[in-house]
Design goal:
The complex is a heterodimer. Chain A is of the alpha/beta class. Chain A is built from 5 helices and 11 strands. Chain A is 17% helix and 27% strand. The longest helix of chain A is centred in the middle third of the chain and has 13 residues. By secondary structure, chain B is mostly beta strands. In chain B, strands 1, 4, 5, 8, 9 and 10 form a 6-stranded mixed sheet that branches. A 5-stranded mixed sheet of chain B has the order 3-2-11-6-7. Chain B starts with 22 loop residues before the first strand and ends in an 18-residue tail after the last helix. Classes of the chains: A alpha/beta, B mainly beta. Chains A and B meet through helix 1, strand 3, strand 4, strand 6 and helix 5 of A and strand 2, strand 11 and helix 3 of B.
Chain lengths: 282, 201
């Protein structure tokens, strides 16, 4: 069921790699026998092609509404009439322009699932002194226009075809929530599980939307009777012990510290490294 | 120009070192690898140059470090928007490796591949002439694993995804063979001064 070129190459032994790899990654490559470039051995290539036109064209987006999620995070609904559609997990680039022509641009994950509404949603943390998030949280109001380009990057995308195991922390839940919403909206049969980490219950983004597919880990404060502590093997190992047919495609999103920790838990529990996709903040 | 109501932005630093659309990350050095950080020790690290060369060669840790030392002190620029000023990398110029393998005249492009399987693709001209390094030190200390240690490629005049972490080798080709991000919609060259972020730019 995997696309051409995603079959993992043999483990490269470190020393004496003169045997090289078996050819470049890439669908339809006919040069496999010629070059010694190793087949990429982690989760590539991208799940989907990214259109050059959609990726390079700036479009006007109009703020349609704001929804508070937590004391520090809010969801911004944008009307983008010419939006080309996206897959869960993809992101966009956004820019704000000052009167003197100064531009600030950032990448943000898309929170909403793909649909035909002509709208997309972003959930943004209010970063202290954040140049762009600060504008969204303190200045923006419905009717304001900004510019976006995308969707971008096929790597962290989930088309809904393979069982998905999602690990996120803080606002790292945003692209994962697009996957959960897509799974629900399309009533997909493919298994999906999510483990999210939040400091405290009041900081858990999308708390009211999380269902049986989700386990929440609280790192600083928890509801009565719920343990406090970081994500551990006890959260991850059982999910890998009950793997669906074909195994999980794992998606990890959060700070670099969380991503390092969570990806190590996955590897320790037996998840192949070539089936772990990581998106780190930055 | 599409002015955003009420957006002033940061004080204008008028920094000539900042390419268009970038901001100064200051003390931050974000980690953005898409894969699991490998557990790779110097003893397990090797670096190979092959493809269109007179003589394929693989260096181990000690052999690579025995080449003439060369350092880069300057700025780096990430396609996600941050730039970092005044970084210092220590290692060996790629020219030193190329002078041993002797690239064919037909070689025009390169794929730099990682011990994890990550790849980036570049024009060969961007890797020669003292503009690219294999480095193992950052700020005078061993390069941390999450930043590509024990050794990574550094091509500082291009967006930093070209600077393959955990570098395992470079293959010289007579055509462009898109690497990991290049297959995912990113630019073939990635010049930050021309803001070549995505393939349509």
């Amino acid at each position: 069921m995997r696309e051409a070129g995603t079959t993992p190459a043999e483990s490269r032994s470190a020393a004496g790699t003169d045997t090289g790899g078996t050819g470049p990654a890439g669908p339809g490559s006919t040069r496999a026998a010629v070059s010694a470039v190793p087949r990429t051995r982690f989760a590539v290539p991208g799940r989907i092609a990214v259109g050059e036109d959609t990726a390079s064209t700036w479009q006007t987006a109009t703020l349609a509404g704001v929804r508070r999620e937590t004391p520090h995070a809010a969801t911004f609904r944008l009307a983008v009439p010419e939006w080309a559609g996206h897959l869960p997990g993809q992101h966009l680039m956004l820019r704000l322009t000052a009167e003197d022509g100064y531009v600030a641009q950032r990448h943000y994950s898309i929170a909403s699932p793909p649909d035909d509404s002509g709208h997309i949603e972003l959930t943004l943390d209010a970063v202290p002194d954040g140049e762009v998030s600060g504008w969204f949280h303190t200045v923006a109001r419905p009717g304001d226009t900004i510019e976006v380009r995308g969707p971008l990057s096929g790597f962290f995308a989930w088309p809904g075809d393979r069982p998905a195991l999602l690990l996120g922390a803080g606002s790292g839940v945003v692209p994962l929530m697009s996957m959960v919403r897509h799974h629900r909206a399309r009533r997909l049969d493919v298994p999906l599980r999510m483990v999210v980490s939040a400091r405290r219950p009041e900081e858990l983004i999308y708390a009211d939307e999380l269902g049986d597919e989700t386990t929440v880990v609280y790192t600083r404060g928890a509801p009565h009777g719920v343990p406090v502590g970081r994500m551990t093997a006890a959260h991850v190992a059982p999910l890998l012990a009950e793997q669906p047919a074909g195994g999980w495609e794992a998606y990890v999103c959060g700070s670099n510290g969380f991503a390092e920790h969570a990806s190590r838990l996955l590897v320790a529990a037996g998840q192949p490294v070539d089936r772990i996709r990581i998106e780190r903040f930055g | 120009m599409n002015v955003t109501r009420g957006f002033a932005g940061r004080p204008r630093a008028a920094d000539p070192g900042l390419p268009p659309g970038q901001y100064d990350a200051r003390d931050e050095w974000p980690v953005l690898s898409a894969e699991v950080t490998p557990d790779l020790s110097p003893a397990d690290w090797t670096f190979r140059v092959d493809g269109l060369v007179e003589r394929t060669r693989t260096w181990d840790w000690d052999e690579a470090r025995a080449l003439p030392a060369s350092a880069y002190a300057g700025d780096i620029h990430c396609v996600t928007g941050w730039s970092k000023f005044g970084v210092e990398f220590g290692g060996v110029s790629l020219d030193a490796f190329f002078s041993v393998v002797r690239p064919h005249g037909s070689a025009t492009h390169a794929v730099a591949y990682s011990h994890t399987g990550y790849t980036s693709s570049l024009p060969l001209a961007d890797l020669t002439g003292g503009r690219a390094w294999i480095v193992w030190e950052y700020g005078g200390k061993p390069l941390p694993a999450e930043h590509g240690g024990p050794a990574r490629l550094v091509v500082p005049h291009l967006y930093f995804w070209k600077s393959t972490k955990w570098i395992a080798g470079i293959t010289l080709l007579d055509h462009d063979e898109p690497g990991f991000w290049e297959q995912n919609g990113y630019h073939a060259r990635g010049n930050p001064w021309k803001e070549q972020r995505y393939s349509g730019d």
